[in-house]
Every structure is written in C-alpha cells, then in structure tokens.
Amino acid sequence: MGHGLLWLPLLAMFIVLARLGWHEYRKIEAYREWAQGFERSKYDILAVLGQRETTLTWGTPTRSGPIGLKSLSLATIDGVEVQVDQTAIDIGDPPQRGKTITLVLTSQDQSSSYAIPFTEIPLAVEWCYFLREYIGQLAIK
Hints:
Layout: H1 2-35, E1 40-43, E2 48-52, E3 55-60, E4 67-73, E5 77-84, E6 87-88, E7 101-107, E8 113-118, H2 121-140
C-alpha cells in the first residue's frame, strides 16, 4: 500500500500535464482556423498576429479563438522596431535573451504606438524585417 501512495502524486501530475496539453492544443486549433484567412500569421502563447494585404490584426489566443482583436492599416504605420526589456534593439545584431519582447508599430503622426508581444527574439526580428519592407513598398506606390 505504501508503494501505491508514492505513485499517487505522479498520477496527479500526469493528469494535470495532460489537461494543460489539451488546453494548449485547443488554442492552436482555434488559431489554425482563425489564421486561414491571412497571407502571413504567427502564433505563440502571448499573441496571435496576422497580415492580410495592408491590414495587420493581432490579439490574445484562447481555446475558443483569439480575443481582444485589434486591426490596423499598414498604410498608417511609419516605424517598426523590436524592443527587448523596453529598449529598442539593433535588429542586425539582436540580443540572445530578454524578459519582454515586443514589436512596436508607430503611426505616421507619432501620436500612437502599438505593442505586440512575442516570446522569441528571432521571430520578432523576422516580422520587423518583413513589415519594414512591406511598408516601404506601400510608400513607393
């Protein structure tokens, strides 16, 4: 009986991990359905992000689909930068680590900025390169 009691915490931990895994799976499936209408998209535990033509949409992932969605026309954006721990970085030589990583979009009139959270610096840098190039192409047209 003593051996059975020793395995009980392990069983409880397995059940908790299985439940957490199921919740994360549901979030990813909800994201997949949401992301089908976008040309480019990203998912991580902090935010979902999608780009369709000149519109950028982002929000918070949940099991029932993204919530708190915000949309923005890329034609109104003038600046794009990556901030690590609230400090702008050189995207040509990004740091290896940071606690908070955000992609910051600044409007043309400098009156508003939008922060999109990321969990990985390389992914934020990749989106920064992409958005800078895309906004540059919009300015040429």
